[in-house]
Amino acid sequence: MIASRGNHSGSDYRHGATAIISGVAHTAFNLDTSPDIERRQIDAWRQMSAAQKAETVTGLTRASYAMTFAGVRQRHPDESPRQHFLRVAVIVLGPDLARLAYPDAAEVIAR
Predict the structure, then answer these.
(1) Would you kindly state where each structural domain of the chain is located, as residue ranges?
(2) DSSP SS3 for 4
(3) Which carries the bigger pLDDT value, residue 2 or residue 57?
(4) Which tens digits make up the pLDDT trace of 19-76?
(5) Strand ordering across the sheet containing 19-21
(6) How far is CA 72 from the centre of its chain?
(7) Which of 44, 48, 43, 5 is nearest to 25 (CA)?
């Protein structure tokens, strides 16, 4: 069920519009994207199959890891691939969980 706030309908994607959908408030995804393009993007996501959505999420996750690794390698060019991996683990998991999963992560956390 959709309950509107203000003069906006629940299907209105204009910036600043807020609709409650099962207790979740809708806000604009991107402040630099026109409302029409945002609406089209949301409509396209709704038309995707579960497999297409999973493929998209997998691709975005892989791209995020690739960018994280690239940033770590750029900031620490003299370290080994293992140290790069540990630094990414600290970024993704946080220091406490990274240390539990990879005890040698302590060496990169300390620096």
Answers:
(1) 2-47, 60-109
(2) strand
(3) 57
(4) 555 666 667 777 788 888 988 999 999 999 999 999 999 999 999 999 999 999 999 9
(5) 2-4, 19-21, 24-25
(6) 18
(7) 5
